Amino acid sequence: MNSTLLVEDCKEIYQLVSQAVSGPLVQLDWAQSVTEAEKSLKDNHYDIVLLDIELPDGSGLELCSKIQAISPDLTIFFLTGHNDLSEKVLGFSAGADDYITKPFNPLELRARVEAKLKKLEILKKSADSLKWKEIQINKASQQVKILEGEDYKQIDLTALEFKLLTYFANRPREVIDRDTMLNDIWGRDIHVYSRSVDTHVSKLRKKLKPVSHIIESVHGAGYKFMPTE
Predict the structure, then answer these.
(1) How far is 167 from 123, CA to CA, in rounded Å?
(2) Lowest CB count within 10 Å: 115, 170, 192, 227, which one?
(3) How far apart are CA 82 and CA 63, in angstroms?
(4) In the listed set 94, 127, 160, which residue is the last one of a domain according to the structure?
(5) Residue 53: which CATH number?
(6) What's the pTM value of the predicted model, to 2 decimals?
(7) Which residues are paired to 135 by β-bridges?
(8) Mind spelling out the 3-state secondary structure of 38-67?
(9) Could you tell me the residue range of the domain that residue 72 belongs to?
(10) Of the residues 127, 160, 187, which one is the last residue of a structural domain?
(11) d(CA 104, CA 1)
């Protein structure tokens, strides 16, 4: 089931959106403020966020920028009464994928959401498998195979090790510092020391032998995932 989060303080708008997009294949959650939205985004996975600009405790534009910094692949639609061209430019600059002005046609909103979900499903299927010369990762089944000699051998990873590996694999050739990894993988509210990252990476590397070289240490910075194309 696809999940959509509506960030909107008006109950009437929520009811309209619910009638438009809710169904057997789409679950709609409702947050009435920036604070509620941030909690929902932390606790749940969403495919699309429908976001108003004016919220009781903050700006939807600022929230959009925050979401994009943490989850750049998350789809965001602005659903707002601000219809000036300058506002639309600000919305897209903040990272929005679409901008729908109120009053809106529920049928049009439904069509736009469904069209985006179809594209996301296609991308998801194509992104379920990550393959390089040394390693093959299947996200759906959480299976990992590494090259050993001329054949691929499946290895067993813990849930955290698999999460760590896919985190690297989604950012090939990007230098990632320990603090960023701590925030992205463990979360800001979990008290884990930065050196604990080294311990977990070391355990992961041991299981990846003889292709453990694909996770490189970058002195004074962090780590980098360097597979062979």
Answers:
(1) 18
(2) 115
(3) 16
(4) 127
(5) 3.40.50.2300
(6) 0.57
(7) 146
(8) HHHHHHCCCCEEEECCEECCEEHHHHHHHH
(9) 2-127
(10) 127
(11) 25
